[in-house]
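Take the subject:
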Amino acid sequence: MRSIILLSVIIIVGACNASEEKSTTTAIDTLATTSKKSVIEKDEEPKSILPPLKIYSNKRFKDVIVERIGRDSFRVRGQGQIFEANFNWIIEDGHEELKKGFQMTDAGAPEWGKFDFIIHAPKKRAQSTLTLILFESSAKDGSRQHELPIMLY
């Protein structure tokens, strides 16, 4: 009877020790994996502050995606249903217009034409937030119509 109890105690103690070693190994492996990821993320410069694949649209622009490709550079692509395929853009910081320009789609309205261009948008003030605004100019008075604001950074 004593030998059965002794054997049972040895099996139970051995099983407890084996499960502790497994959980310790798993915790160390998880910690090592987490530490490696943290170091890599800290060393790399973020490629985009914008959420991945956020798509912007309104009545005249659709499937517009803005990708950060450099410190102050952005690639803007999408489709527009624009009269004579010509649209304008402005970059502003909430106080003033920093840059402006125009682009063309590969087809005019009523078709949806594609566009793809790169802008360089450095900040004038470190704490400012830059916004890109795509818009169509009115044929009557040149006013902005169908504005599509997109926060850059």
